[in-house]
Amino acid sequence: MSEQRKKLIFSFLLLITAAIWGSGFLVMQNVMESVSLNFTLAVRFTVAAVGLSYFIFKSEKGVTPLLVKHGIVTGFLIYIAYAVQSYGLDFTTVGKNAVLTSLSTVMVPFIAWVIRRTRISPVLYGAAFACVIGTALMSLPDRLEALNIGDLLAFAGSILYALHIVAVSICSEDSEIMPLTCMQFVFAAFFAWIVTFSTDAVPESLSNSAILGIAWLSVMATLLAITMMNIGIKIVDPTRTALILSTESLFAYILGVVFKNEPVTARIVSGVLIIISAIIVSQLVSAGSETKAQKAQKADTQMPVKLLSKKTAAASLARGSASVEGTGKVEAGFPTAAHKEKSALTFY
């Protein structure tokens, strides 16, 4: 098989991954109509932890105190991000929730700057401003007092997702990415089960649709999506990968319109397009920075390096990694497709 054909096939695989993640918003909203939020998250995180436990046993270091500490921090952040963002689905549309949640991409470099004083590309300031304009067009009604609380929760969730991505980037400097991904799901499940049992949110029975929905979120939108992304990013260049996975929120918006009859107005569509365009630009800037840094490293060492560095092998997410290697601190760019892998989430 030619290299070009192989890239085309794996690009399609990444597009399927984005579509699955986009569908997660719609499925989550449907499941929450009959099952509590925290029970759904608890099951989803538990399945993810069990499915990724192989990497804990495979690791030469095993479970270390540092890995546990990192797992607690990242696990809490991903749990609270999921909880806040998903709760917002009760009050707003699937499309708006997805697009507003994707703003985490824009927030990462600014949070990284606050925590680590990393450099921010000037282009990203423009992308951030564009996202503010797009968000206003999408979410702000004619009367400010009528602002939808669901949109505010989705926005708060995007901040928490951005914090999670930065935390995973920092923790992965001292912990292997896949054991860390597994451990974060272990503790995310732990926190979700605590809230579930403390609020008597365990359902007495589950409908067939609820079972199918939870299975989709756990197996398809978490384990399978992570696996397909891990395979795809080994073949496809980071710029194309970032571009493809940026369509996640677009898929969510389209599915909301098709299956939920969500409103389609010129104002909302304009806001969606502005935000998605800003995210794509930010992804391309980040991917370009990664490629330049890796070329410089290759020139210095005269040794081949992986196209994706450890720091870009990134929630979502939902969003894990297979065998990604690399070095270096996190650059103050936006999270590329690899960041999504690193945070295992996004997996939304």
Description of the structure:
The protein has one domain. The protein is an all-alpha fold. The protein is built from 14 helices and no strands. The longest helix has 36 residues.
Task: Tell me the layout of helices and strands.
Elements lengths: L2 H29 L5 H16 L1 H5 L6 H23 L6 H8 L2 H13 L5 H18 L9 H23 L5 H22 L9 H25 L5 H8 L2 H13 L5 H36 L35 H6 L6
Helix pairs in contact: 1-5, 1-10, 1-11, 1-12, 2-9, 2-10, 4-8, 4-9, 5-8, 5-12, 6-8, 7-13, 11-13
End-to-end Cα distance, whole Å, is 33 Å
**Rounded mean pLDDT score:** 78
Number of domains: 1
**What proportion of the residues form beta strands (DSSP E)?**
under 5%
What can be said about the biggest beta sheet?
Answer: none
Unreliably modeled segments = 301-348
Q: Into which percent range does the helicity of residues fall? A: over 70%
Overall form: globular
Structural class: mainly alpha
Order of helices and strands: HHHHHHHHHHHHHH
What's the Cα radius of gyration? 19 Å
Number of helices: 14
Number of strand segments: 0
Please provide a brief summary of the model.
The chain is an all-alpha fold and 348 residues long. The protein has helices at residues 3-31, 37-52, 54-58, 65-87, 94-101, 104-116, 122-139, 149-171, 177-198, 208-232, 238-245, 248-260, 266-301, 337-342. It is 70% helix and 0% strand.
Give me some keywords for this one.
mainly alpha, 0% strand, 70% helix, 348 residues, globular, single chain
